[in-house]
Amino acid sequence: MPKRYLYIWFQYLATNRLAKMRPELRGKPFLLYAPEHGRMVIRAASQSLTKEGISPGMVVADVRAILPSVEVLPDENVADEKLLKDLAEWCLRYSPVVATDSPDGLILDISGCPHLWGGELPYIQSITARFRKGGYDVRAAIAETIGAAWAVAHYGKNGMIIESGRQAEVLFPLPPTALRLESSTLQRMEKLGFRQIGQFIGIPHLNLRRRFGEAMLIRLKQALGTMHEPLQPVQPAPIYLERLPCLEPIRTATGIEIALRRLLESLCERFSREGKGMRTGIFKGYRIDGETVQISIGTNRASRNATRLFKLFELKIPEIEPALGIELFTLEATLVEEVSETQEALWSTANRDQAAISELVDNISGKLGVQAIHRYLPLEHHWPESSVKEISSLEEQPETEWRTDCPHPIHLLPEPVPIEVMVVLPDYPPMHFRYKNEVIRIVRADGPERIEQEWWLQSGPPRDYYRVEDESGARYWLFRLGLYGDRKPQWFLHGFFV
Amino acid sequence: MSELTGKKEIIRQLKEKILSMEGFGTGPDSRLHDFGLGPMNAAFPGGAFPVGAIHEFISPTEACAAAANGFLTGLLSTLMKKGGVCLWISVRRKLFAPALKFFGVEPHRVIFIDVKREKEALWVMEQGLKCNSLAAVVAELRDISFAESRRLQLAVETSKVTGFLHRQCLGTENTLACVSRWKIRPVASRTDGFPGVGFPCLEVELVKIRNGRPGIWQFEWKNGTFRVVPERTRTVVKPPIPQKQQHYA
After folding, report:
1. Does the CB of B236 have a partner CB in chain A at under 8 Å?
2. Can you give the CATH number for the domain in which B56 is found?
3. How far is the C-alpha of A332 from the C-alpha of A278, rounded, in Å?
4. Number of domains in chain B
5. pLDDT tens, residue by residue, A27-71
6. Among A55, A113, B72, B202, which is most buried by a count of CB atoms within 10 Å?
7. Residue B14 resides in a domain
8. What is the pLDDT of residues B60-89, one digit of tens each?
9. Which residues numbered 108-137 in B keep a CB inside 8 Å of some CB on A?
10. Per-residue three-class SS string for chain A
């Protein structure tokens, strides 16, 4: 059975998106730009501007000279790609195989689908009408090959249906651009006077290859249907959602717990079938007065242990206000990750220990928030404040060894405290210093250990660190910021040694 | 003669039974750890540092707090030798993670929990002490009541996790249900005539120890272990307190 493809071209995708977001722009001339080599280059122009002859690639300043009233907005390329992907997922209602064609098209493999809509004509009309109603200007075409559908959608009549095996005829009057060729090939064709595909479609392939290269031939063959063109269909993310309707509205905590337990059991069963686990979950209750109440949890490691997840939810159940009663419960896992059965032993402890610890940490983060939990890994910096890196994962291991060559104080003050000192000679440790209105006499000292600023990160004077001991035996970490000479350097207390 | 040794054996067994009933972890596992405290072991019940219990450290000044953290990190290094993770809870943490390495603890094996209120710190500590997968739990806080400390002690008795309560700069030293009370002070390091600062030197005062003998020792942290400083140890083990005055708080 021959394949059938539908190509949908979103002619004004970026401007349509913006007009949907900001209805006041609808119908007005406006354009989107992005900086390129120091110039503001147009990325997309609204429909009315395109009719004036303004096209992407022009410079904003030129357009302003032609049309001073035009509205100019910055472009977000990322939003368009995401929108295209969302549109592709929406199109899954028309065909199970939908692929995005960056930057502004969708390819649908519709083989065996249109008869459900009563034929290809009602099918294509239904799709274009739905898009137009949603505020998108689309041009669509159905053909046996993706290349032909693309060509007709861009350069042919809108909504055209090309019967099987007749793509060559339809391509005849179209310009060579309709074959999706590279700009250098197109320029060469322009020079040679090829204005229509029909002019060169009959030339032997050997000659075409010599002049225009293999890529052009591939495109031609793909459009004619003698060569297969692969598709990369979108894979919609599966939704992990369980629902539990209740005959009678639930008003008690016990009832909510039972509902939650049931939902968790069925969801965890699905997780264990698919080898997945929950990272974040939302438990919702739909009340009979129309309100929704919800609680959410997060875990440090993906989990599919129903009792453990229940414990995390249990802490928050008192937050649910049932009011007149809850008639429907849903449980959705919003973030799902793979769980490997045999996770490697971390921290050289048994797996069971590790699971217990991550459970404990989840409990703590559930009550106090994730920001309360810290772990540190070494960073290769001498500057004390930047010598550690904070990480949130419990499993990350250090890439480099912890440094042992120079002593670190066990207590480091969050901010170095300025102190008054008495120094005999430059580059000597102080005789005594004043900290918290107390004069501390120094008996022994080590140093200086000079730590320079890392010039590729920050600039400033170096620090000269001294490890000093006072009469009572207390050991401190002092430093002098800067050198004696041009200005009087400042002394700081930065930490306490054991 | 054999009758006498038999009696001694019975007495020793009974003593161990009493200790275990009092919530001491003096089982075979407590003897597994060698903390390198040397002559200090005589002060502990059963001649070994009590693991699976809660120890209280009191530090009146910032310098003492640093010294106490250093000392208990030294103890942690022994507890974590066989692997495992430690929980370090604090309200206003000053501890600098890379320094733990100097005392033999891998800093990435410590999970730091920074809380805002003392109540939260106690809640986390209780949860941590109930989890027997942890090697130890350290909490730095200011105030704790007797009732709260008993909750912690009960948690420890089932899970056998060692807990350290480090109380800093507090006014009153109220009685707690902890097994011991320590005061650590930094003392001048020994340099043997060389210039500069020597190895860290600490005065360890065991103020209270249940079923043990309090005393004062001086230790030096050298080559990854504690070394007692014999010539500076001013007070040796105090004579045992008469049985009647002994209190179990």
Report:
1. no
2. 3.40.50.300
3. 9
4. 1
5. 788 888 888 888 888 888 887 788 778 888 888 888 888 888 888
6. B202
7. no
8. 988 999 999 999 999 999 888 877 889 999
9. 108-115, 120, 123-124, 127-128, 131-134
10. CCCCEEEEEECCHHHHHHHHHCHHHCCCCEEEEEEECCEEEEEEECHHHHHCCCCCCCEHHHHHHHCCCCEEEECCHHHHHHHHHHHHHHHHHCCCEEEEECCCEEEEECCCCHHHHCCHHHHHHHHHHHHHHCCCCEEEEEECCHHHHHHHHHHCCCCEECCCCCHHHHHCCCCHHHHCCCHHHHHHHHHHCCCCHHHCCCCCHHHHHHHHCHHHHHHHHHHHCCCCCCCCECCCCCCEEEEEEEEEEECCHHHHHHHHHHHHHHHHHHHHHHCEEEEEEEEEEEECCCCEEEEEEEEEEEECCHHHHHHHHHCCHHHCCCCCCEEEEEEEEEEEEECCCCCCCCCCCCHHHHHHHHHHHHHHHHHHCHHHEEEEEECCCCCHHHCEEEECCCCCCCCCCCCCCCCCCCEEEEEEEEEEEECCCCCCCCCEEEECCEEEEEEEEEEEEEECCCCCCCCCCCEEEEEEEECCCCEEEEEEECCCCCCCCEEEEEEEEC
Confidence of residue B25 (pLDDT cuts 50, 70, 90): low
Interaxial angle between packed helices A306-314 and A253-274, expressed in degrees from 0 to 180 and rounded to the nearest 10: 140
Contact between B107 and A397 using a beta-carbon 8 Å cutoff:
no
Ranges under pLDDT 50 in chain A: 342-349
Q: In what order do the strands lie in the sheet with B201-209?
A: A388-391, A373-378, B110-114, B85-90, B134-141, B162-168, B54-59, B180-187, B201-209, B215-222, B225-228
Q: Is residue B15 part of a domain?
A: no
Chain A residues closer than 8 Å to B200 by CB: 475, 497-498
Closest residue in B to A396 (Cα) is B108
Q: Which residue has the tokens 């349509």?
A: A16
CB of A41 closer than 8 Å to CB of A33: yes
Say how far apart CA A411 and CA B103 lie, in whole Å.
Answer: 13
Task: Identify the pLDDT of residue A417.
Answer: 92
Nearest CA in chain B to A387: B98
Interface predicted TM-score of the whole assembly (ipTM), two decimals: 0.83
> What residues in A contact B122, CB-CB < 8 Å?
none
The pLDDT tens digits for A187-216 are: 988 898 888 888 888 888 888 888 888 888
> Taking the CB of residue B223, how many other CB atoms lie within 10 A of it?
7
Q: Can you list the domains of chain A with their CATH numbers?
A: 1-236 (3.30.70.270), 241-338 (3.30.1490.100), 411-497 (no CATH)
Whether residue B17 lies inside any domain: the answer is: no
CB B214 within 8 A of CB B238: yes
